[in-house]
Specification:
The structure is a homodimer of 422-residue chains.
Chain A (H helix, E strand, L loop, with lengths): L1 E8 L3 H21 L1 E9 L16 E2 L3 H4 L6 E4 L7 H10 L3 E4 L2 H6 L1 H10 L4 E2 L10 H8 L5 E7 L2 H13 L3 H10 L8 H4 L2 H15 L1 E2 L6 E2 L7 H9 L2 E12 L2 E12 L11 E8 L3 E8 L3 H17 L9 E4 L7 E11 L4 H11 L4 E7 L7 E8 L2 E2 H9 L6 E9 L3
Parallel strand pairs in A: 1-2, 1-4, 2-3, 4-5, 5-6, 8-14, 9-11, 11-19
Antiparallel strand pairs in A: 7-10, 7-12, 10-11, 12-13, 15-17, 15-18, 15-19, 16-17
Chain lengths: 422, 422
């Protein structure tokens, strides 16, 4: 039995969850894993604040040095959230030779190279299972279970807020704005929802996942990003007619030595395992050349699911003598600047002879071939009608070029959504 | 960089898969993990046999001692299948202080205590991720990611053959016998399909999973087992009408200190994540008090998926200095002898006034209350009609007792299928 002395950076909902879990399950963990933990100091912003766990005030401090400079603390758990000062504190902890366990995707993804470098230089451990998809052990799966694979793609629903919004839009035909307002009332979306709905949160997580999957650094800035705020009930409904379900996907693929990493709304076939991942659940679908297709599903957020992953990392950190850092090349990944997929294209077109021929002709000139087309609803009073096309697999750039050349006197309100079939 | 010298016991499809994967990915594994492997001897039944990998004949031997007694071999990989001689060979390897990596659920589940004891006594490692659900890292998830949880249930589709058969029966309305014959032609079912269709294979796997999840030994003999050979297209079809999908489930739960471990056909709601696990795919659904609901999905069999898990265990075994065995009490688990669930009861009843009252009265006397009833189809020429009941959550024993007392002049051909809703 060994006892590890640990410090907390932050003590919000997740920190309180970790505190409670360690109290409640401490005996089980000691019996099964041979590890006990003593929480020595907890950095908080305000000692007097009421919290979700009964924590002795003597443990709390408002001075980060009480955690970062205490030589007795060997593992620092960080759940302050946000980029700074979390990243600087983690760096200081690593530089002092302390092992860091974090749930902070933003600080980790944004300062990946510095943090890994500091951990390596000071032989400290850096554990971050909780930073991506809460309780789902996707980091372990990639690092510790799929090592013999060439991973070819990682496709995930890795933001619960947007999945909740799209699930309700799909079920109820409701508008984006209405469901967002509801989600905000229920505490499922932040008052400023930008980080979630514009895909930033998913981009941080995808940067981490794709870096690990392809063993080359994929900086957050290299992740293509598009949110869900432009999605209309009509898009969702037209997709349904083609047997497609709309999700905010985070997609990373390696094709011919180039990495694609992109977060955007995408349709998946209704019978794809990701299609049935609803509401606040997360799931990551991984393909490897030996393992084939796999999916990892669970609660991607929440105090206790995140605490479950943090404590699991804490136990692993405590047991590990020589911490292993992920095998990632120093050079960043070569990023793809174009990719091929099926495109769903919806447009408002003048309902007159020859329009379809003009549209399909423009697509054809750019090498984009049409797989199917449906007219949605009746011609409106202005003589316009909704047309929805599904292309065959086509280069994104060619589709954009074709749409850029469409005759705008004939078509307007063009909306493009990618379709992921594999 | 360290080099491990390894030996194989067996070299069928899975062994050849491991051989190919180590050749093909050896460089990546060396670069990323710092481990290289030298295959020193391979035990085969017949050296001359043609195999799925180009293996130098000099490596092969028909004498198990060449692997088991070679002091240079530190890790033995076993993929002979079957109980004996695999179990005895693994025991001998462990007793010689060699670490064992195995894909053999039957030998492992049947000889669990001996193998664990030998590993503990001789400080050897025992790794078996590949023994349950091929590439899916469910053993790692339970042992290394969910340690801070009280796991409350593990529910899986852990046999690909039966899932293929039930998926096709569901999609096509085909009979069990027809689909089985097809599966046999396609090599998806064995010429003697008993181990799969009667649930033995799933029972071995469930014994392992539940032992790990609840930290108490659940012997194979304590797993309740019922196969799918009695399932008719009518059952599948009647379930559909209630929004239910039929699966062969392996279920382990801990309720009030007693463990239920059971393999049997069961209906799940159509929108349950397990309902959409089709064909030869496997999935395990886990609930823990902190992590919430999780699901792990993937290819549960096949050479390369199984090889993926075996090589992952091999890497883990090579890197581990002090092998950890699962924390399982010496005493076997206290098993539940009854459990409560919703029951689907289909029967052929005389179509005459008062029958429903007799049936529901008999149920009521045993405390079984009916949630819904539908009559399926028209009255036949003998004056009988199919009645399908869904009970409220009821004790299995009470349902059996009630059915035992049904007036057999009024009802016949009674078929009961459990419904799992959580």
């Amino acid at each position: 039995m060994s006892t590890m002395t640990i410090g907390f950076l932050g003590c919000g909902n997740i920190g309180c969850g970790v505190y409670r879990l360690l109290k409640e399950q401490g005996e089980q963990i000691a019996r099964n894993e041979g590890e006990t933990f003593e929480i020595r100091r907890i950095l908080v912003r305000s000692k007097g604040k009421k919290r979700g766990a009964e924590i002795p005030e003597a443990l709390m401090t408002e001075n980060p040095d009480d955690v970062l400079l205490d030589p007795q603390i060997s593992i620092v758990m960080e759940f302050m959230g946000g980029e700074e000062p979390a990243a600087s504190y983690m760096l200081r902890a690593l530089e002092a030779g302390k092992t860091v366990v974090t749930a902070n995707k933003m600080a980790l993804a944004t300062h990946w190279q510095e943090l890994i470098h500091a951990a390596r230089t000071h032989a400290a451990g850096l554990y971050y299972e909780a930073s991506v998809c809460g309780a789902i052990p996707i980091i372990r799966a990639i690092n510790d279970s799929l090592q013999a694979n060439r991973i070819t793609s990682v496709t995930g629903i890795i933001n619960g807020t947007t999945n909740y919004i799209l699930s309700r839009m799909t079920r109820e035909g409701a508008s984006y704005a209405d469901v967002l307002a509801d989600a905000q009332r229920l505490g499922l979306a932040e008052p400023d929802p930008t980080a979630d709905v514009e895909g930033y949160d998913a981009a941080y997580k995808l940067s981490i996942l794709s870096t690990l999957a392809f063993h080359r650094h994929v900086p957050v800035g290299s992740v293509y990003r598009e949110g869900i705020s432009g999605i209309t009930p009509l898009d969702v409904q037209c997709g349904k007619a083609f047997g497609l379900t709309l999700k905010l996907l985070a997609i990373a693929k390696e094709v011919d030595g180039c990495v694609q990493a992109r977060v955007h709304p995408a349709f998946v076939p209704d019978d794809h395992p990701l299609a049935s991942v609803s509401d606040a659940f997360n799931a990551v679908y991984v393909s490897g050349h030996a393992c084939g297709e796999m999916m990892f599903y669970g609660r991607g957020a929440g105090d206790m699911p995140t605490a479950s992953a943090l404590v699991s990392d804490l136990i692993k950190a405590a047991k590990t003598k020589n911490h292993q850092l992920p095998a990632v090349d120093e050079l960043p990944a070569k990023m793809a600047d174009d990719w091929a997929c099926v495109h769903f294209v919806r447009m408002l077109a003048r309902d007159e002879p020859g329009v379809l021929s003009v549209v399909s002709g423009t697509f054809a000139r750019h090498g984009v071939s049409i797989a199917s087309m449906v007219q949605k609803g009746e011609t409106d009073s202005d003589g316009h009608v909704q047309l929805v096309f599904l292309t065959h697999r086509a280069s994104e750039r060619c589709v954009r070029q074709a749409l850029g050349e469409m005759d705008r006197t004939l078509v307007s309100q063009v909306n493009v959504i990618r379709v992921e079939r594999d």
